[in-house]
Amino acid sequence: MFLCLLWSVSVFSQHRMYIGGEAGLSHGGESDISFVRVAPFVGYELNDKWDIGLYVAYLSSYQEKKSDKFSLYFALAPFARYYFKEKGVFQPFIESSVGYSFSDQKINSEKKESKEGFEIGLKPGFCVKLHEKIRLSAKFAFIGYRKDYLTYENGYIGHFNLNNLDLGLIIDF
């Protein structure tokens, strides 16, 4: 047991943990849907090329056009991130993740539907080092499969557009 403790202390002292998050607000014109999204995450650097971590996402949407439609979404998504070059100012990466989500929907204050969903796929992106301990991250696409995951469309998807743009901030320890 003592050897396990020594091993874990040595592993954590050699590598860094980080926290971060993504947030967003949007409002669709004709559809009249408003979204609020918050997605904090925690990560662990295994070495100069690989990170692992976990996203926790919360999203709410409200549509007023035809009826008062209010939806809440919650998701968990473990990820592995591979950096194409060693840590520097600009760090391109590819992130693989498997996500699980569930949602509740109310129309005119009555509970109407609960859904579960999932996604599995790759997300290319990059980090820009702003300070020794602060990085800006951006993911600009999703290549994979989604089924009722958050508010995204279903099926095999290979989108490179602003609907899949995720901006975040990472703080290294």
The domain count comes to: 1
Outline the low-pLDDT stretches. Answer: 1-10
Topology order in helix (H) and strand (E) letters: HEEEEEEEEEE
Enter the CATH topology name: Porin
CATH architecture grouping: Beta Barrel
Tally of separate helices: 1
What is the C-alpha radius of gyration, as a whole number of Å?
18 Å
Strand content is over 45%
Round the mean pLDDT to the nearest integer and report it.
82
Largest sheet: 8 strands, antiparallel, barrel
Backbone structural class: mainly beta
CATH class: Mainly Beta
How would you sum up this structure, described in words?
The chain is mainly β. Helices cover 8% and strands 68% of the residues. The chain has an eight-stranded antiparallel β-barrel. A hairpin with a 5-residue loop joins strand 1 (17-27) and strand 2. The protein is elongated and about 50 Å long.
Précis, in short:
This protein has one helix and ten strands; from the N terminus they run H-E-E-E-E-E-E-E-E-E-E. The chain has one helix spanning 2-14; strands at residues 17-27, 33-45, 50-63, 69-83, 90-107, 110-131, 134-139, 142-147, 155-159, 166-172.
